[in-house]
Amino acid sequence: MKLSDIMAAAGLSGWAQAAMILFLLAFVAILVAVLAPSRRREFEAASRMPLQDDLPVSPRAPTGGQP
Amino acid sequence: MTAQLDTFRYDDAIVRKFMIATFVWGLVGMLVGLIIALQLANPMFNFDLPWLSFGRLRPLHTNAVIFAFAGNAIFTGVYYSSQRLLKTRMFSDTLSALHFWGWQLIIVAAAITLPLGFTQAKEYAELEWPIDIAIAVVWVIFAVNFFGTIARRRERHLYVAIWFYIASIITVAVLHIFNNLVIPASLFKSYPIYAGVQDAFMQWWYGHNAVAFFLTTPFLGLMYYFLPKAADRPIFSYRLSILHFWSIVFLYIWAGPHHLHYTALPEWASTLGMLFSVMLWMPSWGGMINGLLTLRGAWQKVASDPILKFFVVAITAYGMSTFEGPMLSIKSVNALAHYTDWIIAHVHTGALGWNGLLTFGMIYWLLPRVYQTRLYSQKLAEVHFWLATLGILLYVTAIYSAGLTQGLMWRAFDETGRLQFPDFVETVVRLLPMYWLRVVGGSLYLTGMVIFGYNIWKTWRTRPATYAEPEVQAPRLLPLAPEPAAATPRGGVFARFVEAAWHRTWERLPVTFTVMVTVAVLVASIFEIVPTFMIKSNVPTIASVKPYTPLELAGRDLYIREGCFNCHSQMIRPFRHETERFGEYSKPGEFIYDRPFLWGSRRIGPDLAREGGKYPDLWHVRHMEDPRAITPNSTMPAYAWLLRDPLDFASIQKRVDVLAMLGHPYGEALTRAPEMAREQAATLAAAIVAQGGPEGLADREIVALVAYLQRLGTDIRRTARAVAEAGGR
Fold first, then answer.
1. In angstroms, what separates the C-alpha of A8 from chain B's closest C-alpha?
2. How far apart are CA B315 and CA B297, in angstroms?
3. Chain A residue with the nearest C-alpha to that of B526
4. Is position A62 within any domain?
5. Three-state DSSP string of B546-598
6. Does the pLDDT value for residue B381 go beyond 90?
7. Cα B80 to Cα B89: distance, rounded to the nearest angstrom
8. Would you tell me which residues 154-183 of chain B have a C-beta closer than 8 angstroms to some C-beta of chain A?
9. Distance (Å, rounded) from C-alpha B32 to C-alpha B53?
């Protein structure tokens, strides 16, 4: 008896549906977490992160004349 | 407790290195693209040289633009943005340098080995096993450097771009390792541990997710960082970006089987792949809308800023190709589009539009910052933008029409119920004007690239004598305080859940977060792949299908070396127009000795799954020597060297041994494979002479290839009695 025979006899096809439902539940959970109104301010702060990392020097002219 | 202020410097030298590498390899990859475009328009551009022929250059083009151009672009953006988003220098300068030089070395190795014909024959996984190991090592170096940087961060929350980077790094590692499990037969030849259907499944699980986690998620990370920077405003909706992230991680990994519709893949798998692909519509368009709406109220900036122009068209191209992808995954659409140029147009919308333009926009934004000067010419950047956009438009419209033309001609029947274009070459000749238009479009894009290079060079020339390395200050991250929400329970379990402390915790704990991503990716992969491997009924075996003889095996390896699978499929789909044209449709059981599988993804030439016995041996010899002597309008390169070069009989034994180890039932070939090959070669060479062909081919490569071609698809025609008589050859 080979492993493939055992797998075929095990009747695992229902597991796919189970996985599907688990995935759906995980997605709903994330949806709730993300859309929670209490987090608005937090997300606003997070979305500003890329804009708050500038170097103290901004691009300068090669001659050094302009800031 | 007061936070301690740390002082540190960002490492921009590594960003500059990756940026230049991006440009250089981009130029090389696109130039090779132009050469192979010319080769398809006119075969004289193959120059009758082995290492310049289409079959060997096409993988070089795809690898160069994906892993060299897009790869270095990813690293440029990741190294720049991660340091700033995490408020720390990269974990280790040594690892950064090792990553950079290691990756460039791998690219050079690819650029040498692919034209020499060393290939695993799996799309975007062509590189042979020693290079694969090097890739794995360099990727681990990158991962250690990246996660080390996260561990040292001075910013609690991980910005969404970092999530995209994490998912990319983890998934690419998993994909690369599992698709490249091979047993070496020599330094540059190996056989995969998977055969036939399973190999095809693994390959397109890998191939599709290479598109997802190499060309999509990292670039989305770049978009979520560089677009707000260039537009000087935050992303339209941070919530949407989180949903975008999780949906893509959950869905993409399932979509691979849509590359194998109507093939010998079990139907449930291809339906599953289709469903998940269609679901991808939502997050992809969510992401596109998120990007475009970031510019709300700032569209006047787009008119004057070439960087924003690049970004807008890139994001639009993302939307277009992710609209088209799910559409192509629908079986009935796929039936028309598969194997045609439609797919080529689709990937070029994505690669030239999304990856290319996003990279250009990012580099134009970076140039003044990392070289600490001004961009040499805003005007030339505008010119580059218009040339690139026009080039893409010309390219894709030409190739879309080529694809549709081809698909419709293949399936056309006349009023008597016969194929309207029974001669395959008719459908090739019809495409040539479109192929020339593609050359024009590609040239425009490449011209833009040259102007880009000039602009980079002139900008670089005005850099300061020494780069300023300004100090940055940020408070050190304190140990995580207990979650305050836990102390104030109100409203019961549901309210607690909705407060989402659990998701907030994930966002702060990169390890947990990474584990969750890995679980999402692995669970999907396992549920989809394991059944094809394990459940017997999925691949019914056929008694008359036997392993290739030693000579045929050598011929098959030559077929792989010359990259024949880049133009010829070996998979007849169960449609009447296909069975009329090529013969009985392909069965899963026919491929159990195919390592690697050679189903192909494109029919620039006809399918070869039932080539065996269609033409005399001499026909094949003449055809390989000069295809146009047989088929006047053929665009196939000539392979005259196969008639000249001696066949390497000595290495056959080792190859047979490896396949025997993988379970191929080889009887006497286990001890005398080279002798058996010589015997079969002598018989075949004699037959060629008897048919009026040249003498002295018995020890040339051509006999092996002809032996293989004559075997293709013939096994199922043999009756059970013939099998018994032959003693299972």
1. 5
2. 17
3. A16
4. no
5. CCCCHHHHHHHHHHHHCCHHHCCCCCCCCCHHHHHHHCCCCCHHHHCCCCCCC
6. yes
7. 10
8. 155, 157, 159-161
9. 11
Evaluate if pTM is beyond 0.90. Answer: yes
CA–CA dist B353, B313 (Å, integer): 7
Write down the residue that tokens 């720390």 correspond to: B88
- Separation between Cα atoms, residue B22 and residue B243, nearest integer Å: 30
Measure in Å the smallest separation between the Cα of A38 and chain B Cα atoms: 7
Q: How far apart are CA B184 and CA B67, in angstroms?
A: 23
Please check whether residue A18 lies inside any domain of the structure.
yes
Which of B229, B250, B500 lies closest to A23 in CB terms?
A: B250
Inside any domain, residue A25? yes
Domain that holds residue A19: 14-48
Tokens of residue B68, six digits: 């060299």
Q: Could you give the number of structural domains in chain A?
A: 1
Q: Looking at chain B, how many residues does it have?
A: 729
DSSP string of B609-659? TT-TTSS-HHHHHHHHH-HHHHSTT--PPP-THHHHSBP--TTHHHHHHHH
Asked if the Cβ–Cβ distance from B238 to A47 is below 8 Å, we say yes
Chain B residues in contact with A5 by the CB 8 A cut-off are 536
Q: Cβ–Cβ contacts within 10 Å for residue B465, how many?
A: 4
Query: Within a domain: residue A53?
Result: no
The two tokens of residue B363 are 């580099």
- Radius of gyration of chain A measured on its C-alpha atoms: 27
Separation CA B296–CA B687 (nearest Å): 74
Q: Is the pLDDT of residue A5 over 90?
A: no
Report the candidate in B206, B223, B387, B385 with the shortest Cα–Cα distance to residue B319. Answer: B223
pLDDT of B728 > 50? The answer is no
Q: How far apart are CA B703 and CA B91, in angstroms?
A: 56
Give bridge partners of residue B472 from the DSSP assignment. B8
- For B246, the closest of A3, A30, A47 (CB atoms) is A30
Q: Determine which of B339-348, B545-554, B694-703, B717-726 has the lowest per-residue pLDDT on average.
A: B717-726
Indicate if the pLDDT at residue B99 is higher than 90. yes
**Mean pLDDT for chain B overall:** 91
